[in-house]
Amino acid sequence: MNRLIAAFALLLCASASALADDVAEASIRGNEFRAGGHVEFDGRVNRSAFLSGGSVTVDGIIGRNLYAAGGEVRLEGEVDGDARMAGGTLRIEPQARV
User: Fold this and answer.
1) pTM for this one?
2) What is the mean pLDDT of the chain?
């Protein structure tokens, strides 16, 4: 787990100089990492998703846990484990499942 956290921190640092529309993405051992100005996840990941951005929208299927942070975080999809979200505005839409 420490390696995953380190990879996520490295991804966040790498995306700090990116433009608002750029998103840095990585898949490591079945986990999905994304960071950028506007991050949208509408796919499927078997393990956990680590997402960070000015705005983050999750409309996909997360096999384990969701870790999301941003100015606005919106959950519209399905999370089979825990959803840990932090942000200025958090929205869990009616169709979302955790």
Assistant:
1) 0.80
2) 86
